[in-house]
């Protein structure tokens, strides 16, 4: 499940672009709408990558739990496995 709605991502992207413009951190070589859409796409794709990461962590935990019945604590393993997989996949959390 995505952590932000589409409209929230839209507003966040608009605020980022507005801030960049106000601080003169960006010079447009393409239309501003293209830049905004790129920001939206980047944020959306980042959330999708994290969702996939979490699904993979759950699958890995399910496998480990079957292999080590009674000795496995999901609540402790989830953050550790998520950090490890994120590092391997070069995902910044």
TrEMBL record:
It comes from the Bacteria. Pfam families: DUF507 (PF04368). This is DUF507 domain-containing protein. The lineage of its organism: Bacteria, Pseudomonadati, Bdellovibrionota, Bdellovibrionia, Bdellovibrionales.
